[in-house]
Amino acid sequence: MKFSYVNPTQIHFGQGQISTITTSIPKDKKVLVIYGGGSIKKNGVYDQVCDALKEHTWSEFSGVEANPTVETLDNAVVMAKEQDIDYILAVGGGSVIDGAKYVAAAAMYDGNGWDILIGKHIVTEAIPLGAILTLPATGSESNSGSVITQKSTQTKLPFMAAAVQPKFAVLDPDSMKTLPERQLVNGLVDAWVHVCEQYLTLPTGAMVQDGYAEVLLKNLRVLAEQYDDRDNNEWRSNLMWTANQALNGLIGSGVTHDWATHMIGHELTALYNVDHARSLSIIQPSLLRNQIEAKRAKLEQLGKNVFGLDASTDLAERTIVEIETFYHSVQVPTQLTEHGDDKASAVDTIIKQLEAHGMVALGESQAITLEVSRQILEDAVA
Ligand code: NZQ
Ligand code: ZN
């Protein structure tokens, strides 16, 4: 184990905490409030933001779409530059927060913002930003990652930069009350896969990271089991905090990561507009079966410690079935159907995109070559 760890985002958790932004954002800042398609106007979050920012100077940019595009966000970059914005407040789910991170970084750069995604510009400075989370799933509210799509080329790429990590994040479970069922279960599944990407790799013997990862997975399993009771503050709070902890850097410190499911999943979203979480539930079971020997020890550990399965020679196989059952229990699919009828050409198209994006050696041991991705897709595409 060798790592440096800090999570500098201050969390304001609980009902009524949106009012804390009054003091979290310095009064002398020119603030740009960034949000999505308008859900925040229906659940009272926008009104609470207006109330809290009464004494601030602020303007707003709306219309950040799910799986945010550089085409839309570049309009906000122009706005931030023209108005000398020096603080950004993202109000929404992962897409809005990721989009705000891109704006924060691109506004401090004179070149084409897409350079950030292709690694041509390394982000070292950004407009400071804070986040009000309305959809627990991605962990974006307290991490340094962002995933942006270029619509014109159907390309979805991530970037990481300490400079775009939110200074603070407000997690008020009441803001989840208007979430459609689909987004709620997407959040459960995305958080689940985030833990898996940092845990289902090689045995590392890291007791803290493994143990905490298992607690988070157990929480998500229990929350899915208690899904009928979801209309209460305790259920919402537990999902919101679990999803946050799943990708805030802690369980990933000093251990091996995978992320192949995410990288292949991004192609499904870019090509066929599959929801992020569903792209993961489609890829992950096939990927786990394909990589079962490399991952056997951790799959067995997960089966025993999270699902309570008894030891057997096929414990890893049974664990994958349990993971699929978990997805199906919340009505999330494990096969791609959005491509239409032509499976062969869909697999070819996805492979071409993976190649174009340099995703040619994925997974904890870089064992997932294009040929292996093809095998995984043969199983995952209906
Ligand atoms: O646009 P609005 O009106 O806000 O509606 C959104 C959107 O349509 C709606 N929604 C959000 N909060 C709501 C609500 N509707 C009613 N009530 C509320 N309280 O939900 C829809 C989906 O929102 P979105 O932000 O797209 O969902 P999510 O949080 O799942 O974010 C997905 C994006 O995050 C990226 C994904 O790739 C995807 O682009 N990820 C970011 C990560 C990170 N930064 O660390 C890691 C993740 O693995 C993920 O890749
Ligand atoms: Zn994810």
Overview of this protein structure:
The chain has 14 helices and eight strands. The strands form two sheets. The protein has a six-stranded parallel sheet with strand order 1-8-5-4-2-3, with helices on one face. It is α/β, with parallel strands linked by helices and 382 residues long. It is globular and about 65 Å long. The mean pLDDT is 98. The structure holds 5,6-dihydroxy-NADP (NZQ) and zinc ion (ZN).
SSE order and pairing:
Blueprint: E1 10-13, H1 21-24, E2 30-35, H2 39-42, H3 45-52, E3 57-61, H4 70-82, E4 87-92, H5 94-106, E5 129-133, E6 145-150, E7 155-160, E8 168-171, H6 181-199, H7 207-225, H8 233-246, H9 260-272, H10 276-290, H11 292-305, H12 315-329, H13 343-356, H14 370-380
Parallel strand pairs: 1-8, 2-3, 2-4, 4-5, 5-8
Antiparallel strand pairs: 6-7
Helix pairs in contact: 4-5, 6-7, 6-8, 6-10, 7-8, 9-10, 10-12, 10-14, 11-12, 13-14
Bound molecules: 5,6-dihydroxy-NADP and zinc ion.
Number of beta strands: 8
What CATH calls the topology of the largest domain is Dehydroquinate synthase-like, alpha domain
Which stretches are poorly predicted, pLDDT < 50 over at least 5 residues? none
Mean pLDDT comes to 98
Features:
Dehydroquinate synthase-like, alpha domain, alpha/beta, about 375 residues, about 45% helix, 8 strands, binds zinc ion
Could you give a short description of this structure?
The chain is α/β, with parallel strands linked by helices and 382 residues long.
